[in-house]
Amino acid sequence: MDAKRWAPPAALVGCGWVLAAGALTWAFLATRPPDRLFAGVLAVALLAASLFGTLCRPRLQADATGITVRTLTGRRHFAWDRVTIRVRETRRLGLTGTSLELDADPDLTVLTRLDLGEDPYAAADALHALRR
Question: Which of 34, 42, 87, 97 has a CA that sits 20 to 30 A from residue 80's CA?
Answer without folding.
Answer: 97
